[in-house]
Amino acid sequence: MPELPEVETTRLGIAPHVEGREIVEAIVRQPRLRVPVPDDLIERLVGSRIGTLSRRAKYLLLPLEGEGAGSLIWHLGMSGSLRIARLGELPKKHDHVDLVFDGGAILRYHDPRRFGFVDWLAGSQESDPRLVNLGPEPLSEAFDGERLYRLSRGRRMAVKPFLMDNAVVVGVGNIYASEALFLAGIDPRRAAGRISRERYERLAAAVREVLAAAITQGGTTLRDFVSGTGEPGYFKQRLNVYGRHGQGCRRCNGELRLVTLGQRASVFCPACQK
Ligand SMILES: [Zn+2]
């Protein structure tokens, strides 16, 4: 599943090919995505230019240039990907939407499970119901250990689902929550309200570290955005705990354990995480 680093890598990968470019054609092969593709998508896009891309949580925002022209909000769902195809490159199965730009680049959306969507942003970023209640970006200054400490007081829920709550901080999915808790030495089962401010400072630093490392690593795969093969933006990383239950801890060589927290599989080292 694309997580925040993959979405950010996608933004960085496609931006140079689409920003400031005019859309000369839009093709919708399959309108039945998680949200149906808007009926007026083609009409409003053709002849418009794309402004500066941005990202909020796992949403990509593609503004159209010109006052009141609106913005597309794109979510990759469980299996979606956006990449740059070249004119004449035939669509494959599950290539549902193409935006064709002057100059010949095609922004092509691929999504076998169709849990992603493209839609118009409802008004502004500040008013769209999908964005309005989101917590801060994990790589922004608004996210820190103090925030985690303050919001967790009195909370009995385990720290891992707390950290994955989008109202607390956005974009910390299962992989990065698991990895950050390992780096910070915190047991994912520990009650969120019983963790000290100092340990939350370490956890916030670990969240930033794992996400920044993943984005940096994703940057090395950027050429995949313009090749015809592979899954653009999805990259294998060296993970310490996620997906490694039953294997040895990289720090102490003890066996990593699997527990379920908030309906999500959670792997941790009982010796290194307290
Ligand atoms: Zn260990």
TrEMBL record:
The keyword Ribosomal protein does not apply. Its EC number is 3.2.2.23, 4.2.99.18. DNA binds at residues 94, 113, 155. It catalyses: Hydrolysis of DNA containing ring-opened 7-methylguanine residues, releasing 2,6-diamino-4-hydroxy-5-(N-methyl)formamidopyrimidine; 2'-deoxyribonucleotide-(2'-deoxyribose 5'-phosphate)-2'-deoxyribonucleotide-DNA = a 3'-end 2'-deoxyribonucleotide-(2,3-dehydro-2,3-deoxyribose 5'-phosphate)-DNA + a 5'-end 5'-phospho-2'-deoxyribonucleoside-DNA + H(+). It comes from Halomonas sulfidivorans. Its cofactor is Zn(2+). Residues 2-116 form the Formamidopyrimidine-DNA glycosylase catalytic domain. Monomer. Binds 1 zinc ion per subunit. This is Formamidopyrimidine-DNA glycosylase. The gene is mutM. Keywords: DNA damage, DNA repair, DNA-binding, Glycosidase, Hydrolase, Lyase, Metal-binding, Multifunctional enzyme, Zinc, Zinc-finger.
